[in-house]
Amino acid sequence: MPFTLTNNSPFDVSYCVELASVGEANASGMQPFDCVPMEALVGAGQTRDLKLTLSADTVSLYYAANLRIVVPNQKEKMEWRVQGRCWPQAMFVFDASPEALAAPPDVNRFKDQALAAPDAIVLEKTFPQTAAERKEPVEHQLMVGNCGSSGAGDFSFDNAAAAAELGFKVEPASGKVDASSKVPVIVTYTPPPGGPLALWNEIQLTGTLRGGTPAAAVTVEVRLRGFVPAQL
């Protein structure tokens, strides 16, 4: 990820980058994040180009680091939290809801003892019962992306029509994802008309990710649960 530093002062200014990993660790022991140049002199009124890179070797959603740029005698802080994710193929999907993104990292420190990753990406969502009792629709966001540098990919959810019959509307149910881009997929649950007894609707939404570079066909399984209030 390229970014720039601009020196707006009338004097030459030096800087140094402090980068501390606080998330997932690489199995190789190599630091996952790097920034170049780590230190340099920026002339008065000049701009310096920097590049932050992630070199990950472990499948994880929880790479993170604290990035701090230190400039002598500058009171204003320049600090950021950077995050990264790693998949074995270009196409990916993850839970992009605020609850999931705010959840604490689930970092596996015993990667050498872990079993091989399955060929499916498995997610789940239980929609709130209180909203269903008020018959209010609730949205849940998934993010489908392509982290490859070339080659478009595509996705499709094969049983989206069956999910819609139970109140789970998937939009879009299929689509194209260009390299280095993401496409949001919104699952909206609206409880269908109920019977004399309350119940939970449940379906496993199944889909496939294809293409990208490196290419691989990956199965997606999203378990959806929604409450259906009794119809009195």
Structure report:
The chain is 6% helix and 50% strand. The protein is mostly beta strands. It has two domains: 2-86, Immunoglobulins (Immunoglobulin-like, Sandwich), CATH 2.60.40; 91-228, Sandwich (Immunoglobulin-like), CATH 2.60.40.
Question: What topology emerges from the helices and strands here?
Answer:
Layout: E1 2-6, E2 13-21, E3 33-36, E4 39-42, E5 47-54, E6 60-70, E7 79-86, E8 91-95, H1 98-101, E9 120-126, H2 129-133, E10 138-146, E11 153-157, H3 160-165, E12 168-171, E13 174-177, E14 181-189, E15 199-211, E16 218-228
Parallel strand pairs: 9-16
Antiparallel strand pairs: 1-5, 2-4, 2-6, 3-5, 6-7, 8-10, 10-14, 11-13, 11-15, 12-14, 15-16
At a glance:
With 232 residues, this protein is mostly beta strands.
Shape: elongated
The Rg value, from CA coordinates, equals 23 Å
Number of helices: 3
Instruction: Indicate the CATH class of the largest domain.
Output: Mainly Beta
Q: What does the main sheet amount to?
A: 5 strands, mixed
**H/E element order:** EEEEEEEEHEHEEHEEEEE
Number of separate strands: 16
Separation, N- and C-terminal Cα atoms: 57 Å
User: Segments where pLDDT lies below 50 for 5+ residues?
Assistant: 109-117
Give the overall average pLDDT.
89
Widest β-sheet, arrangement of strands: 9-16-15-11-13
Q: What proportion of the residues form beta strands (DSSP E)?
A: over 45%
Provide the structure class: mainly beta
How many structurally independent domains? 2
CATH architecture heading of the largest domain: Sandwich
> Into which percent range does the helicity of residues fall?
under 10%
CATH fold call of the largest domain: Immunoglobulin-like
